[in-house]
Records
---
Amino acid sequence: MTAGTHRVAILVYDGVTLLDVAGPAEVFKEANRFGADYGIVLLSPSGADVTTNLGVRIAADGALAQAPAVDTLLVAGSDRFPRARVPADLADAVRTPASVAGRVASICTGAFVLAAAGLLDGKRATTHWKVAHELAARHPTSRVDADAIYVRDGTTYTSAGVTAGIDLALALVEEDHGPDVARNVARALVVYMQRAGGQSQFSAPLQGPSPRSPALRTITDLVTANPRGNHTLGELARHLNVSTRHLNRLFRDELSTTPARYVENIRFDLARALLDQGHSATRAAILAGFPSYESMRRVFARKLSISPAAYQRRFSTTRP
């Protein structure tokens, strides 16, 4: 590496997700074709080679603790997190090198490694939507944004699931070399420089666990069985012969939401499924129980930051 080389170290370890490593590395390598000077090294906690989640062996260039200070330290994720706690030796391996790196970033569940090392304390962060709630629960001093593709807080960066590592790497290239270089890299890799909407557009349906109380289960079953029904607060309360205030309290205490928002979420989930099946946006709105297409469009805009039509283009088929 020359004196002006920007040193990028990617932390790898047994069980690391291969795409978390390869995706960002490809972005930095491609940027070198357009005038950048990134030197990429793969470092493990001990310096030993590692085996990825796919069983592919990766040769490490050395031990993270023994490597010279780097400009960018990337911590790749693993599907072992959050099912298992981050090993102490892995968190320890990151702590000191991160303190002297120019910037530190995580890919997907690599955020759990940063958090275990105390590097996300008091900071905004994100990770894969499926485990964002667990990151927030384990590390309550971190402000976890479950919808962001990537988050920057000072010199600390975190990104969402797997391919979001490419989004983050492009953002880092743009930060270093400007939008033209990043745009050329994105074009070469046939990816967007910035994708529309947050990661919630990729998430599973919003329905959570069933309520504990039989009374509230009666209401949620009613809404789920017939999303097109008249499910105003007054109607739902009359169905249980309780006050609207009591029904609101039940929803708040057990589901942390309101009856109106629960009904909206059920209709939203159904509308997404209908769009995936090829129904027109107008038809999906009717079948899902929305009062109008416009009301459905507003819900999609609020939850996904994209329109129903844009959602359908992205997810209805792989065919052009």
---
Amino acid sequence: MSTLSTSLPGGTWTLGDLTVTRFGYGAMQLAGPGVMGPPADHDGALAVLREVADLGITHIDTAGAYGPRVTNLLIREALHPYAESLHIVTKVGATRDEHGGWPPARRPEDLRRAVRENLETLGLDVLDLVNLRLGDAQGPRPGSLAEPFETLVELQRQGLIRHLGVSNATAEQVAEARTIAPIVCVQNMYNLAYRHDDELIDELAEEGIAYVPFFPLGGFSPLQSSALSTVAARLDATPMSVALAWLLQRSPNILLIPGTSSLTHLRENVAGAGLSLSDEELAELDKIGR
């Protein structure tokens, strides 16, 4: 583990040879409504990204499909040339249609094009970490990932990608990916109320592989739970803060990427994730998703 000094909650984690803060930032919400088009407040989006860097966050999650291309271009405008400590994680395997849908794009030519576009829009020669997005907008779907994943392995051999991960994947797909090439992270939906991956998280922790929950706060319909609200009120904290703190304490391999387009919310998220939950509070919260 690197000695990168950080006062951010949770400290650091290593993704392969990359040290990142466990508290990261997800850029999806910087795009326009429905993750389509430019932000209403362009300068405000740039200010959020610069504050992310100023806070010491070294893990930013994005995708060429956000906007599409919008969040990548904002990251480049706000932060390029990038600090050596900053690591940008992107994902490929889905595109956007004119209705705002997320159709799969996992043919070899789709993936090669997506990697090239990510390099171009982010202004990079090599991508630190690329996640292969599987399944669809409704969640993971069973089936082999061999062909698309092998395409990314080939691009990795060509020096265009440093590390690989999978997203929206079943436990079987995670296992299959690991028989083809090393992965450094799994990015799936998980939060206090949605606990389908509990067993997988524990297995990955033993293997030193990160687990990155998307929609850590419930996504488009925020987490609602009387137990969560009760604990939050007792701690004089927001329910969202408690949910983030719970994730950091749930397992050392969990990396957070909560998204926001607001400077205030960004700072609240960082502060909230630093709450220390007692064993009793953890046990109380643990019942929510069981």
---
Amino acid sequence: MSAVVETPQTHDCRVAFAEELIALAEQDPRIVAVCNDSVGSSNLTAFRERFPERLINVGIAEQDMVGVGAGLALSGYVPFVCAAAPFLTGRALEQIKADVAYSQAPVVLCGMSPGLAYGELGPTHHSIEDLAWLRAVAGLGIVVPADPAQTREAVRWAASAAVPVFLRIGRFKVPAVTPPGQSFQFGVAQELRDGDAVTLVATGSMVSRALQAAEILAGEGIGARVVNMSTIAPLDEEAVRRAVLQTRGIVTVEEATITGGLGAAVGEINLRQPRPVPMRMLGSPREFAPTGDTAFLLEHFGLTAEGIAAAGRELA
């Protein structure tokens, strides 16, 4: 009789984000939310009901939204600027650069439903370039939580850090991956599984799939290390150096374009080492995606446990 494989319970990180934001706002009157006519899609409905005077809806005006957030931050407030990730980062990139990062205004930029989350709405709504765009902006932290627990901790950290930061809050549901007792640390990766053959460096929604891939490889006698790279900028260089020294190759996995994102960041560190190791970068190639739902698109680009395992197998 074959074993029954249980499907792990999955969770919406946007729910964890909204609940934590309300809990923090209960304690800190400086916390406000700013959005672009996206109360529902940013999961701010409950926040608006609890704090109607602390939600600023600028309408469909993303540049103004970021500018308002910067002004609030420089006036002593703690603004969480929330919008669908493609419109926050694409339409307001100049304001993110000049008003927030260059001015070092401690704004928490919240990119909701990033990557391929909007599926059938097509490339205009896919946010696969955001990590590449924002990595190029000096003075801006980039955090991509992997599950609800890490989302809550990242929100708490961002509220008190007093630095400009971009939080990438995923839309499609993911299982819990954060081990008990491990807390989020800005700029520090979490090693979720040890292995000496290949290292799987994943971020956000892809961390759980990397863990599944490691299970597949373990069944073949291949030890795969799994690293949750929750901070993209600044990247944990020491975690990458350990992977280079202790394993035979690195696979990076991101729900984003491989042009300039996590894979590129890891590759830059790898190439600076005395003996770089082979790499495979999994994500969206430099092309617009076909029409289809999120599950189809992830399958199309090989962002599945099987696709990750195949890349790891090549390097082991």
